[in-house]
Amino acid sequence: MMRADKREEDALRQVNERLEQAIDSISDAFVWYDADGKLVLCNQNHRDFFPHLGDIYHPGISREEIFRHHAEAMFEKDPTFKVEDYLSERRKLTHTPRPDREAQLFDGRWVAIRERPVAGGGMVSIRTDITDRKKTQDTIAGLLKQNELILASTGDGIFGLDLEGRTTFANAAMARMTGWGAEELIGKFLHDIFRHTRPDGNPCPREECSICIAHNDSKAYRVYE
C-alpha cells in the first residue's frame, strides 16, 4: 500500500514539474491564483515583468501581500503615489477577473493583460509585452499627423481613392474646390460630386471621366478645364 502511495506521489510530482516546465516555456507572463487569492504558481517571465517583486513570488503568498509590496515600490519611486487608494481599489478585484486591457509598467514598458476565471475558483492572468507594438503605433500616428499637416498646408486639392473609387481622404483645398466638407467627402465617389457634368453642361459618364480612367488603368493624366 505504501509502495502504491509512493508511486502516486511520484507521478503527481512529475505532472506538477512538467506543468511548471510547460508554463515556464511560454513567452508570455503567466500567474495563477487559487480561490482564496493565493499564488499557486507563476513563470519566470512573470517575475521578469516585476523585478522588484521577484523574491516574494512563492506559492501561498496572497495577492494582497503582492499588491502591498508593489505599492510600496511605487511609493519609493514616486512619493505622491497613493498607496492606500491603490490597495483599496485592488482589494475589490482580488477574486474578479478584469476585462482585457493594456497598461504601462512603472519602468515604461507596455503590457496587454488578460485575466480568466479557473473552474473551481481562482483565476489566471497572462501578460504580453507589447512595448514594440506601442512604439510602432506611436510612430505611425506621428507620420499620419505629419501627413495631415502637409496636406492641410498645400493650396492644391489632394485626395485619395479606394479600389472602388470612393474617397478615402481629402485635404482642405480639395474640400473648398468641391464645396463639401473634407469629412463629408469620405466614402463618396468624387465623380458623382463634381465630375458628373462637363464644362459645357453636358453629362460626363464615368467611362469618359479622366479621374475614373486614371483610377482604372493606373496611368497619369493631365486635364485642363
What attributes characterize this protein structure?
225 residues; alpha+beta; Beta-Lactamase; 5-stranded antiparallel β-sheet; two-stranded antiparallel sheet; 7 strands; 45% helix; elongated
Describe, in plain words, how this protein is organized in 3D.
A hairpin with a 5-residue loop joins strand 1 (about 30-35) and strand 2 (about 40). The radius of gyration is 30 Å and the shape is elongated. It is built from nine helices and seven strands. Helix content is about 45%, strand content about 15%. By secondary structure, the chain is an alpha+beta fold. The chain has helices at about 1-25, 45-50, 65-75, 85-90, 130-155, 170-180, 180-185, 190-195, 210-215; strands spanning about 30-35, 40, 100-105, 110-115, 125-130, 160, 165-170. The termini are far apart. The mean pLDDT is about 80.
**Poorly predicted spans:** none
Q: Could you give the order of strands across the largest sheet?
A: 2-1-5-4-3
- What is the CATH domain class of the largest domain? Alpha Beta
Beta-strand percentage range = 15-25%
What is the second-level CATH architecture of the largest domain? 2-Layer Sandwich
Q: Number of folding domains?
A: 2
Question: How many distinct helices?
Answer: 9
Assembly state (oligomeric): single chain
Using DSSP, what is the number of strands? 7
Major β-sheet profile: 5 strands, antiparallel
CATH homologous superfamily designation of the largest domain: PAS domain
Mean pLDDT across residues: 82
Distance between the termini: 100 Å
- Indicate the structural class: alpha+beta
Shape: elongated
What is the radius of gyration computed over CA atoms, rounded to a whole number of angstroms? 30 Å
Helical proportion? Answer: 40-55%
How is the CATH topology of the largest domain named? Beta-Lactamase
Task: Spell the H/E element sequence.
Answer: HEEHHHEEEHEEHHHH
